[in-house]
Amino acid sequence: MSSKILVVDDKQIMRDSVAATLQRAGFAVVTASDGKAALKQAGKHRPAAVITDLRMPEMDGLSLLTELRAVDPSLPVVLMTAYGTVSDAVAAMQQGAFDFVQKPFEGDQLVMVVRRAVQHRELTNENEALRTGGARTDAVPSLVGKSTEMRRLAQQIHQVANSSGTVLIAGESGTGKEVVARTIHAHSPRRDNVMLCVNCAALSSSLLESELFGHERGAFTGADQLRKGRFELADGGTLLLDEISEISPTLQAKLLRVLQEGQFERVGSSTTLSVDVRVLATTNRDLRFSVASGQFRQDLYYRLNVLPIELPPLRDRTEDIPLLAEHFLATVAMREGREPRRLEPQAVALLKEYPWPGNVRELQNICERASVLTRSGLIKPDLIQPWLQTPGPSAPTTPVPVSQGHAPTPIGHAAPPHGQELPPRVAEGPVRALEEVERAQIMYTLNYFSGNRQKTAKALGIGVRTLGLKLKKWKEQQLIAQSA
Ligand SMILES: Nc1ncnc2c1ncn2[C@@H]1O[C@H](COP(=O)(O)OP(=O)(O)OP(=O)(O)O)[C@@H](O)[C@H]1O
Ligand SMILES: [Mg+2]
């Protein structure tokens, strides 16, 4: 059965175009023209992934994202953002979006992101699997890296896997905390039992309580049947509590009890239940500060921190970058049944210099995009450079309107540039960077269209005259540089 995708956009032309592209790629599609309708459609159709516009009247894409994730934290949501709004895209990722695509984008790019989202959904949907037929062993992603830090990590994982103590995995977003948790479970004596995961940041306190501990029928309005919580469902296995720093004081107390005694009650029940669950927790904050500021119970912190694991940011293990990139390119190639794309040495150098605020996840996204967008088997530095921007009031990311095959008609290109309010420039530095990005983008596109200025200007959304003036200026600058 084909996976169902929910497409949300207030503009019909955009909805139709995205829907048609996805249908051609074999997905079933349902659409909605605003956030409210989208929530209804999501409830009715239970899509495998959602792709939504960011800017919409009334409920915008970010609010929709929050609402959807509150109901179903494992539902991947992809945001469509406008040209030049890199800060919006970053905000979306920080709020838990699966990925974003910048308009105008290619059909290929869209299909690739949606395929990944669906695959991710399949991998993380353990609970469904459990409810409909028992435990299943998920494919454990491999932990790639040869740096001293990664070797030390492998050792630590090996040491904690056999224990039943609680592990607190700390690290910035995208450093691989979940992969580490899955690896620990896969090497533990519980490996044949289920591992479940709850994102503590995605649910309100009361929803989280019922998600963790379950509820009796009639426990609150809407509780029309008994529901087991994750602690009960994970009995004999492992429970991953993601973003543990976000739980409320009431739940902190309940959690402490279940960690100490293995006991709890369902919401609305006085019967005490006992379970044998190993808890792994992740945090991207330093919990010691949360303890110091009174937001997190000290006793719970000590209880969780029995076996601490600290994941270093990617910028502190640059020697892993080429290996990871190769790994991600090979994974895409295997999925698509072709030879892996390769990175030009200068492209590798660029990747090694970048500080990676989104860590390994950001590197993975960039490798996957580059893999689809490159026209040859080789990824050149000018393809990836526009994506390597640190968030903040600096240069915006430029979309890359190129793909393989016939000349592309980027989706969303005709849309009014409602997101074109570029971030303010800062006094120094970024002005040059912006021009370099622009130049790389223009040269790449021009090359793609074999020097045809009309097509290049159209794809980039600028006038042919403007393009001509820019090319003339760069040519003159080059001549000056050569004669100097
Ligand atoms: N060492 C690694 N080797 C291979 N893939 C990795 C590695 N580290 C991370 N990844 C990949 O990077 C992505 C992000 O990893 P993961 O979800 O584990 O990060 P995280 O720290 O849990 O992030 P967040 O804090 O945002 O939840 C995943 O797709 C994961 O498979
Ligand atoms: Mg995570």
From TrEMBL:
State where the protein is found: Cytoplasm
In its UniProt entry, the species of origin is given as Mucisphaera calidilacus
Checking InterPro entries in the record gives: AAA+_ATPase, AAA_lid_NorR, CheY-like_superfamily, Homeodomain-like_sf, HTH_Fis, P-loop_NTPase, Sig_transdc_resp-reg_receiver, Sigma_54_int
Record GO cellular component, one term: cytoplasm
Q: Which GO terms describe its biological process?
A: phosphorelay signal transduction system; regulation of DNA-templated transcription
Give the record's keywords alphabetically. Activator, ATP-binding, Cytoplasm, DNA-binding, Nucleotide-binding, Phosphoprotein, Transcription, Transcription regulation, Two-component regulatory system
* Protein name as catalogued: Transcriptional regulatory protein ZraR
SMART domains noted in UniProt: AAA (SM00382), REC (SM00448)
GO MF annotation, one: ATP binding
Q: Which SUPFAM superfamilies match?
A: CheY-like, Homeodomain-like, P-loop containing nucleoside triphosphate hydrolases
The segment(s) forming the Sigma-54 factor interaction domain are 143-372
